[in-house]
Amino acid sequence: MTTATTAKHLQDTTTLHNGVAMPWLGLGVFKVEEGQELIDAVKEAIRFGYRSIDTAAIYNNEIGVGQAIREALAETPSLKREDLFITSKVWNADLGYESTLAAFETSLEKLGLEYLDLYLIHWPVKGKYKDAWRALEQLYKAGRVRAIGVSNFHVHHLEDLLKDSEIVPMVNQVELHPRLSQEELIKFSAEHRIQMEAWSPLMQGQLLDNTTLQDIAAKHGKSIAQIILRWDLQRGIVTIPKSTKAHRIAENASVFDFELSAEDMQHIDGLNQNLRVGPDPDNFNF
Questions:
Q1: Residues with a known catalytic role
Q2: Interior angle at CA 21, CA 161 and CA 237, nearest 5
Q3: pLDDT by residue (tens digit) across 146-173?
Q4: Right CATH for 4-269 from 3.90.550.10, 3.90.76.10, 3.20.20.100, 2.40.50.40
Q5: What residues does each domain of the chain span?
Q6: Binding site feature residues
Q7: Which residue numbers belong to the known binding site for substrate?
Q8: 199-227: per-residue pLDDT in tens?
């Protein structure tokens, strides 16, 4: 099993608690609209060596992601569907047992895939996520999805879910970056063997003028984005930076040829302010 600090390659994986291998680094496509830019970005990432693509029903781009996957597979005969790790998420309006099962089928159809590698509950909608989780457990037991998990769940949401669940989530994908380091959640997840995954790892560009990060980046001859992504990896966190630009897709993946020192890590840890750029999972109304 590859551990975070020894990940040496873009295709290195962490092993989820059910034995499924999940790449440490993937491409996120949040806010990338259907169209050629999306298709080109996904194909570019796969061409560069990415094997993990993260989408969601609410992104309204599953059709384009699916098309890009088909084109990438057709253009690279040595690449097989099972070499890829594709994630999607059930949206809040579809949370519930039957409605989640139906939403899964819709996502699969749009993606043009026979199975998903990871399916997540997108947000912890009170009174709904337990029924949705039963649906995910059913999909998992039926072999329709290789791993199941949640997104934007706090510790108390996880504790509540675990009281009634048969299967412990394999993944919890949350907002996580140097201003929101999620220490409590990381500790809880480690105790329950739930793999943490970061969305918005670069805080939507809000950290690019941070002097602490600038100093560390200069020392390593790397960009601030690369420093942050490396910090994720060394903390054992799967990360999915979003980009549609070929040079940025390549840059974000070039984080396996250096290591941050313990001192570097401490300086970055010290930037935490429990500050969010996205909604608070305890206070959202969608």
A1: 59
A2: 65
A3: 999 999 999 999 999 999 999 999 999 9
A4: 3.20.20.100
A5: 4-269
A6: 122
A7: 122
A8: 999 999 999 999 999 999 999 999 999 99
